[in-house]
């Protein structure tokens, strides 16, 4: 089966051949058929390749492996395997409460109308800082803004374990406050332990498939 990557590379290779033909024999464009071929090779094919390449890379940027490809993010990748259910990111990743291959994107994308666009722009900023700026140490990395409960409720709202959870219903004001984002899911006493990369060396790790 022809994968998107192979198909894209095939188009790029074909485009290079066509451009080479036009450079070697520009007289081809003198005929009507040559003009049509030149239009395809010099305009339509490059445009199609650029669009497909952009789309493919945008999709790849959602992958957990892509997020963790920067050295500075390596501790965050390790934190996903902490053998402690109180670690929020690890519990979600290990139990597939989020897609394992898109774990970072799933939890850190703003689920408002243009959340995906904002996530990509933040990603570009990360790349800029990584290669042209001065990236902070892993334990000093902070979110751009406080984590909104909306991102948690995108998956958990309506779930029985959430709606009927003993802790959520211990106080009649708790659940409405969480849903209104007045009480953060990451508050002290709730799900406050997320990555805690500064403590990884003291923790035990889970190994998948053992």
Detailed description of the structure:
54% of the residues lie in helices and 0% in strands. α1 (4-24) packs antiparallel against α2. It has 2 domains: 4-60; 64-147 and 186-202, no CATH class. It contains 11 helices and no strands. It has 210 residues and is mainly α.
Q: What are the key terms here?
A:
210 residues, mainly alpha, 2 domains, 11 helices, elongated
Strand fraction band?
under 5%
What general outline do the C-alpha atoms trace? Answer: elongated
Biggest beta sheet attributes: none
* Element order: H for helix, E for strand: HHHHHHHHHHH
Low-pLDDT stretches are none
Helical region count? 11
Overall mean pLDDT:
88
**Could you say how many structural domains there are in total?**
2
Instruction: Look at the helices and sheets and give the structural class.
Output: mainly alpha
Distance between the termini: 33 Å
Task: Tell me the quaternary state.
Answer: single chain
**Total strands:** 0
Give a brief outline of the structure:
The protein has 210 residues and is an all-alpha fold. The chain has helices at 4-24, 32-60, 64-67, 74-79, 88-94, 103-108, 115-132, 149-156, 160-163, 166-169, 174-179. The longest helix is centred in the N-terminal third of the chain and has 29 residues, at 32-60.
